[in-house]
Amino acid sequence: MDRIKSFLKISIFFLVLFLLIPFSRTSFSQEKLNLTGIIRAVDSVTGIVKIEVTSENCKGLWNFKFPDYAKEDLNSSMVGRRIQFNIDSPACDPKRLHSIVLER
Fold this sequence. Notes:
By secondary structure, the chain is of the alpha+beta class. It is 26% helix and 32% strand. It folds into two domains: 30 residues; 69 residues, CATH 2.40.50.320. The chain is elongated and about 75 Å long.
């Protein structure tokens, strides 16, 4: 009888652990925020792009900074395009100029 109780306790422990692992990954590991928006202006010298974000998380007109190595790819033909991108933060902060994270 004691073996059955021990087995049940261990089984319940691993079941709870197995159920909690996926939730902890999604809530604690998000370092980047995925957004969608329309490019409204591009400054290829500074690397700053003005994007009208349509995602619920950060709706509105925001300035974002492209990485230095991608500045040369910025040009006025990008204006009006809808893009999906990641930023370097899990949330938008109006007091901060967020950087766009590009995957290499």
